[in-house]
Amino acid sequence: MPTQTWLAAIVLTGSLLTACGAPAAPTPAAVQVSAPETQLDTSYADALSARNQLALGTLNLADTSEVVTPDQATALLPLWQALRATSQSGGGSQTEVAALLAQIESTLTADQIAAIEAQTLTQADLQTWAQANGVALGAGTAGNGEPGSGQGLSPEARATRQAEQGRTAGNAGGASTALIDAVTAYLTTLIDG
After folding, report:
1. What is the pLDDT of residue 34?
2. Is 21 domain-assigned?
3. How far apart are alpha carbons 187 and 132 in whole angstroms?
4. Which of 151, 169, 149 shows the shortest CA–CA distance to 159?
5. How far apart are the C-alpha atoms of 185 and 58, rounded to whole Å?
6. Can you give the three-state secondary structure of 13-68, one letter per residue?
7. Is 165 helix (H, G, I), strand (E, B) or coil?
8. Which of 1, 77, 80, 126 is deepest in the core (most CB within 10 A)?
9. How many helices (H) and strands (E) does the chain have?
10. Measured between alpha carbons, how far is 113 from 57 in angstroms, rounded to an integer?
């Protein structure tokens, strides 16, 4: 009898362990990764892209109480360089660019972001900066309503045109690249002190 009792206890224990076991792991659903949203408003008339607002706005902070600190410059420089590399290669996805912009924004203080947003930077501001810094703008590349600028297109159609031309959203041709170069040079001077 002790063998039968022992055998029954093993079967009962096995049944309990099976019943109490963890359920099978469900198959994970497809995860959609969306691009981080920018904090800057780009919906007003003639607004610069978030990238160009951050770039020109950062340069404009130099003469304010919200100037970028050397520590911030150290963190920002590789982000701007990565953004420049994605723009230059044309290989940066919108998600990649948005992630870099979000990192740049998160490196700046809330007061610095507010100061940049308060500038309400427009295409005219970019043109003024470009002229002051000797950057030539081609016809229609600054988004000033001239033919080829994409002003009459929906955001989707404009993105398609930019992709066909190897540009990322908000790229105002040479001015945008020159602007990023100016920011990286400015940040380098802050780091070098």
Report:
1. 47
2. no
3. 19
4. 169
5. 12
6. HHHHHHHHCCCCCCCCCCCCCCCCCCCCCCCCCCECCHHHHHHHHHHHHHHCCCCC
7. coil
8. 126
9. 8, 0
10. 9
- What are the tokens at 160? 């398609």
One-letter amino acid for residue 124 of the chain: A
N residues, the chain: 193
Judge whether 15 lies within some domain: no
132 found inside a domain: yes
Six-digit token string for 109: 């203080």
Region label for 134, one of left (φ > 0), alpha (ψ between -120 and 50) or beta (otherwise): left
User: Which residues constitute the domain of residue 105?
Assistant: 35-192
158, 152 contact by CB (below 8 A): no
Res 33: pLDDT: 44
Q: What's the total number of domains in the chain? A: 1
pLDDT on residue 167: 45
The whole-number mean pLDDT for each consecutive block of 10 residues of the chain, a chain of 193 residues, reads 57 56 50 58 92 95 94 96 82 83 95 96 93 75 44 54 44 75 94 89
Which residue's structure tokens are 């947003």? 117
Exposed, middle or buried: residue 75 (CB in 10 Å: 0-12, 13-18, 19+)?
middle
Residue whose structure tokens are 């998600």:
95
In a domain, 17, yes or no: no
Q: Are 150 and 141 in contact (CB under 8 A)?
A: no
